[in-house]
Amino acid sequence: MRGTVGRMDAVVVWDESYLGYNLGEHHPLNPRRLDLTMRLAGELGLLTDVSVLRPPEATSAQLTRVHESGYVEAVRAGRRSVGLRGLGTVDNPVFDGMHEAAALIAGGSLAAARAILDGASRAINIGGGLHHAMPGHAAGFCVYNDCAVAIAWLLDHGVERIAYLDVDVHHGDGVQTAFYDDPRVLTVSVHQHPATLWPGTGRPEELGTGAAEGTSVNLALPPGTGDAGWRRAFEAVVPAALAAFRPQLLVTQCGADTHREDPLADLRLTVDGHRALYRRLRELAETYAEGRWLALGGGGYALARVVPRSWTHLIATVLDRDLAPGTGVPGEWVRYATPFAGGDALPATLSDGVDPGYQPWDGTVDTPVDHALLATRRAVFPLLGLDADDRRD
């Protein structure tokens, strides 16, 4: 289904060709997670009467707004570039059609950005969120940084202040790098502490440089942090930073790899916690970003049990078609997804059966999460004109 962009509430960007971004049969970033998500969302009726846009490939000019031209040429060269610029590694193996597949995902995030400037209040591209790609090399399963490409395009087309909020378990290092000296972009990353997880960056002291000092916000959480601790830290940092920056548009990278079943990391969130977070992101966009919200996918390696349920909630939230946690998983979807579940039973509902409530931070510093959030507040709040120790923000 393909829609025409006009005045509308929200659009979805999707094409089955996204599955061509395939790093290999045994690679953790399995494109089937996208297929499973869209099938689940479709079977639950979320995509009925919704504008679904097919993405174009990003052009060389759009890609080189963020990436070095020599790197784009190396990606185009494919297997001739093995061993160069981060290509041909275990994380980023070279595959046939790599440039086209990666450019299509970047084009999807560009299409979502364009839809918002054309009048949509929100847009979602679950194939996007490849936030580790650097200007001159591939990294962390990411060839082109669609997040940064879309943000750069928005800046070039009149948006003056953009907030990028990354809730993937890994630090949003590539996007931070792209805009580390650009005061028009606030990058906020909430992630597992870099001393315990790749890529090893994202400490509170990484603040931006020059005129952009204070526009990089890093909230690094200890392994084992669950729904309550994650939300406690998030609420103590993120809304105040957004209020101080006053963005005109919110871009979010919504990796699902913070989940307790994710095999590559050590946070302990649930699908219920993800649902509550996505609803909060929507509120933040309405409150601080003129209602304009560009949502992207990201990491997530619990292929069948977690990612489709989490991102189905994300799609529902973007579309204002919220699903109750106890919503049943359709039997047809279970039959389709079972071969991809590795022998694990698939959940019967869109819930992990957890109450994702939390206790707001009251200024006490009794837990590792409290120490983490206070470290971020003390590092960056003064640069944003905020009092790190004042709970009235």
UniProtKB/TrEMBL annotation:
Biological or metabolic pathway of the protein: Ketone degradation; acetoin degradation
Domain Histone deacetylase as annotated: residue spans: 27-317
Keywords on record: Acetoin catabolism
Keyword Secreted: no
Pfam family, any one: Hist_deacetyl
PANTHER family membership: HISTONE DEACETYLASE HDAC1, HISTONE DEACETYLASE HDAC1-RELATED
Family, similarity comment: Belongs to the histone deacetylase family.
Record-given protein name: Acetoin utilization protein AcuC
Organism: Actinoalloteichus caeruleus DSM 43889
